[in-house]
Amino acid sequence: MDSDNTFTVALFGIPDFEREMVDRIFALSGSRDNIYRSVDQAQNHTADIALVDTTSETGTEELERCHPDRKDFPSVVVANEEDPSSDYRVKRPFTVMRMLGALDRLVEDRLSGENRPVRQEAPAKIADEAAPPPPIEPVPPTGKTSTEPTVAPGVYKALVVDDSLPVRKQVSVALRRAGVTAEFAEDAESALQLIETRSYDILFLDVVLPGKDGYEICKAVKKNKEKKHIPVVMLTGKTSRFDRAKGRLSGCDAYMTKPVSLKEFNRTLGKWLNLPLSSESADDA
Predict the structure, then answer these.
(1) For the chain, what is the total number of helices (H) and then of strands (E)?
(2) Looking at the predicted structure, is the pLDDT value of residue 4 above 60?
(3) Is the same domain home to 97 and 192?
(4) In whole angstroms, what is the distance from residue 84 CA to residue 166 CA?
């Protein structure tokens, strides 16, 4: 039986890649007043709280099948926009404050003190909070120093702007191994729209893009009072002094020449996001 401040959460309709992120956020609750743990799908009926994706085709149906007699089962709704049907909501993209804040409000209102329901006797197989989360991208053994982060993944978010699919995939893998979530854009127009409407902790910009180039995106970011604090890393095949000088004049914070080694990528990422990533040599990304 868990302690009085530990609450188990069943996930309904949440895709696998977001389940991993949710578990990592829950792992951060270990030192807080309320601790959250997810249960295996087979034990959903034993959980205290439901986390339901109302935008999926199965989320609400799965909850109703699990608790047919509880139309008011304590639930936090996952939605891309405001959902007036619930007082407890968390919007995408998931962040620690959004997720734990919504759960805390639900617990305070409905599950504190005498309002907390008695758990069913069926044993729940709970994910071990003390164990480190599984890596998102399996890394084959090489005998070299691991590049896995020692801070909780999913806390930082990057935007990668490159019109090359292979490059986007390459950077995506490196970011996932570092525990950083990523979004992508293929041109300047899409990138500027995302930067204006969403929050990012770091930007990776290719220089050569359809329409405006990476330098122009960087200049726009650095002129924006609300966005100029975001570190901008230029990714380019241009190696001349002129190109580096142009990058500095645009306001970029770092300039990496393709192909970028994983060692250099991690060193840059660790510097600007304050991540304790290994700077030891590793296979190139």
Answers:
(1) 8, 10
(2) yes
(3) no
(4) 41
Q: What is the pTM (predicted TM-score) of this model?
A: 0.46
In angstroms, the CA 89 to CA 103 distance is 9
Distance CA 252, CA 248 (A): 6
Q: Quote the CA–CA distance of 133 and 111 in Å, as a whole number.
A: 27
Find residue 126's DSSP bridge partners.
39
* Partners of 10 in the β-ladder: 50
Q: Does one domain contain both 15 and 111?
A: yes
Give the residue numbers spanning the domain of 55.
Answer: 6-115
Q: How far apart are CA 188 and CA 211, in angstroms?
A: 7
The mean pLDDT value for 226-250 works out to: 77
Structure tokens at 97: 């404050």
Q: Which residues contact 157 (CB under 8 A, 6 or more apart)?
A: 93, 180, 181, 182, 183, 199, 200, 201
Q: Final residue of a domain: which of 115, 142, 169? A: 115
Inter-residue contact 214 to 258 (CB < 8 Å): no
